[in-house]
Amino acid sequence: MKILITNGRVLDPAHGIDEKFDVLIEDGRISGMAASIETADAERIDAAGCLVVPGLIDIHVHLRDPGFEYKEDIETGTRAAAAGGFTAVACMPNTAPVNDNKTTTQYILHKASQVGHARVYPVGAITKGLKGESLAELGDMKNAGCVAASDDGHPVSNGEIMRRALEYARSFDLPLISHAEDLSLVGDGVMNDGFVATELGLRGIPWVAEVAAVTRDVMLAEYTGARLHVAHVSTRGAIEIIRAARARGAHVTAETAPHYFTLTEDAVRGYNTNAKMNPPLRSSDDLQAVREGLADGTLNVIATDHAPHHSDEKNVEFNLALNGIIGLETALPLTLRLVEEGVLSLTDAIACLTTGPAKALNLPGGTLEVGRSADVTIIDPDAKWTMDPQSGKSRSSNTPFGGWNLKGRAVCTMVGGRITHRLS
Amino acid sequence: MAFNHKHILGIEQMSAEDITLILDTAESFKEISLRSIKKVPTLRGKTIINVFFEASTRTRTSFEIAGKRLSADTVNISASTSAVVKGETLEDTAKNLEAMKPDIIVMRHSCSGAPHYLAERCDFSVVNAGDGAHEHPSQALLDLLTMRQHKGRIEGLTVAIIGDITHSRVVRSNVYALGKLGAQVRLCGPGTMIPPGIERLGAQVFNSIDEAVSGADVVMMLRIQQERQGKTMLPSLREYSMFYGLTPERMKLAKTDALVMHPGPMNRGVEISSAVADGPQNVILDQVENGVAVRMALLYLVSGGDKLEDSAQ
Q1: Per CATH, domain A2-51+372-422 is 2.30.40.10
Q2: Labelling A407: which of A145, A149, A357, B61 has CA 20 to 30 A away?
Q3: Whole-complex ipTM
């Protein structure tokens, strides 16, 4: 089985490649990349006008499987990933049961191997039951296939436990992902604390709730020498802390999500529950800081925090609505907007979706190399389309981007040479 | 002029002309409550459901009496926030009520935005009787009617509002209404009760009640909720009373003819001393009386009453 991708602009940030190349794929692996490849018996994909990039990697998704299959499952979630151009996702452990044990990790990997449309890398829990009380079996889970550990959705509130988790994970070279939030400062807040919250009469979550927690976790990472990845950074203060730590040489990486560089707290007006997430959409100053953080590489990963919820869980009073939005099918065009607006170069934008996330969690992929598995995404950067939440591949439709006119779309996604998505 | 609002969700959406029309209409309804037969046929055949998801005596009774004096059929539902407890969603509750063909739903709800949610999904008119810490439009309108009654105008008045600004829907509606009609609003409370950016709504913020009250035409005290004390918002009601309670001495800082207002229910001896609450400057019961007239006006206007030919009272 041979596939020849012709006439595309091959962009591989990890190797600094930006050339008009043909790419030949044989038996699931890249077997050639050159200006012109002649072969008779290959299926040809004409990528004229398109970008040919390493398969996109999203290291922050909620596949909701096991336990919440009415929102999403491994099949629908990875289908949404493929449609969005992603060839690999890391899935968070807040399932039911929680992925805090080898058996659940094995279930996820087994199901993904049966029905998945993308590589699935499970993230195990840091603490048993995400309770923040005692360490989960991180070594056993790593052996079973977990690529990182996180109590995502909940912070590890106790500093001693976070310290020990970092020390323990260090011995397995397992990155910890910090969901950084000081719950005592969050209180019963439901959106960013500030003028909009005041106007709407909604309880606020101050930015300092994130900054205080990021500060502690970054300092603990420096103290222990362990690797830390900071999830969904949304505030200027957190970015400044991470920037300084990285300058000191700390093993800290950090991600933000497309909604934090695209929307502000103003999106909540009208009590829009699809603009309710955690951390909350912040001020325009924070949005600007997130863009600066991406531009200077402080934030080197764009991850979606894809968080599917049933419409019944969003079609309620704002205070009662669950946090989170889906993001796999909109991340690419929203990231390309940053290129259009001059925030990122095209190479850096693609890096945030490929080599950046791969390096943060030590994942294979994120680059195009002869001999490597053919995880490839072909992007039409000029494709204009209107986002229709109902026609997406996710089982859920909770997005604030419904009706948006977007530009840029994955036209073909392949995992190990197997085509997982093709735009007709 | 005509009133073109199907719903009364808040003062934010109203123009100064809307507010004046409501106040003028309320003024004309006041005398109905003074008759021996306190009823006009204006809303005969209309059905109004008062849905209160949060406890209320004054506002609910006031809306009910307002509806009855206009001959509407009024029904009360007290749901004590239990749509959730019972497992029924707000939308299902609303759709069930809608199936009974009411003309107006008057709703109070502990969640900010709940009336907007209803208005987007249902055919009937929604009148907000207080949503979370967001708006309480009928309260602000009855406050303005009371000020206008005693001062003859709103424009140019200085109104000091003292108390828990953060959690008050009365404040937000008053800031909008007073601002639109040209009054100056001063807000005062301890730092834990001043929400960020409130001055951007067009109010001045004071930490000292003495400064806030000085030279004011109206002093409006807010109820301090007992459950706030002893936690993080307030050390004690005793200390609150010392620093933010309205006493006769503090009232002397206001204009000599200043009005004392309170949306109720009052905590005597906490935010307001009895000497002030019962003193000659208090118009607190006028507020309650005007509440009925304002709510009659709101029900009348959202029913399109001003466009009906036989609307003569």
Answers
A1: yes
A2: A357
A3: 0.91
